[in-house]
Amino acid sequence: MGVIVIKLGGSLEGSAGAALAGAVQEAGRRGSPVVLVHGGGPRISKRLRDAGIELPFVNGLRQTSEEAMPHVMAALAECNRDIAEALAGRGVDVAAFADGEIVVAKDVGRLRTGDVAAVRVDPVRGAVASGCVPVIAPFGRDAAGRPYNINADHAASHIAGALGATRLVFLTDVPGIYRDFEAGDLLLDTTPDELEHLLQAGAFSTGMIPKVNAVLHAAQHGVREVWVVDGRDLEVLRMAMFGTSERRAAGTRLVAHKEGVTA
């Protein structure tokens, strides 16, 4: 197996540590390096509230201002430290990247909300080669060193594509992507065409749109298998990372080539 990129949602902070550490250690025993990208939405929101700063969301993305950016960076650095320490406390060797040194950001005309222009893969590969799990905060800097807030799902999908990852697993606090959330209609196995059709039809909530776009980007840039799962469920996490269990009715899986849909 190749590199597995895991994106840990900010909403899971503190509730997925044991499952994540166990899965990362198992991946190491199987010879599959893990790269971890984390979110930080709840901590960012709290810091902004405490500072009296209100930011709107546009298509699920926080419209980050110049004034807000130091608070965003501080919250993400705090998340990065806590995740790295939690994993290290469970015996995982980590390499923390918390200063925007991995993602090269680009200005997309949304103040300090940017997108990914490129990924600096050499430091990540170096950390992996030394036996460490890179823990990457989702913001970047442009060529002039100016920081931009970047959606963590987008960052993870670009990092996975740049590394040539075989799997990208989004850990969140819901069972997966729903075709119809109110009806409980969970997408189990899907394709890029189906996801794109549902996206264009307006099937997804505003908050889910960035994640769906990230799933599609990864599939279109060489990541063969992309999952969205409840990160608190160790068995589902193992199924997504290793394909070792029978396919349970949990989690959303996209396989870039339909003929490869196996568990």
TrEMBL record:
UniProtKB keywords: Amino-acid biosynthesis, Arginine biosynthesis, ATP-binding, Kinase, Nucleotide-binding, Transferase
Which InterPro entries does its entry note? AceGlu_kinase-like_sf, AcgluKinase_fam, Asp/Glu/Uridylate_kinase, Glu/AcGlu_kinase
Q: Which domain of life is it from?
A: Bacteria
Q: What class of enzyme is it?
A: transferase
Q: In which pathway does it act?
A: Amino-acid biosynthesis; L-arginine biosynthesis; N(2)-acetyl-L-ornithine from L-glutamate: step 2/4
Query: Do you know which Pfam families this protein is assigned to?
Result: AA_kinase (PF00696)
- Domain spans labelled Aspartate/glutamate/uridylate kinase: 3-230
* Hydrolase recorded as keyword: no
Q: Which GO terms describe its molecular function?
A: acetylglutamate kinase activity
Q: Which reaction does it catalyse?
A: N-acetyl-L-glutamate + ATP = N-acetyl-L-glutamyl 5-phosphate + ADP
What Enzyme Commission number(s) appear in the record?
2.7.2.8
Q: What CDD domains does this protein map onto?
A: AAK_NAGK-like
Instruction: List the NCBIfam families hit by this protein, alphabetically.
Output: argB
Name used for this protein in its record:
acetylglutamate kinase
Give the source species: Alicyclobacillus mali (ex Roth et al. 2021)
Taxonomic placement: Bacteria, Bacillati, Bacillota, Bacilli, Bacillales
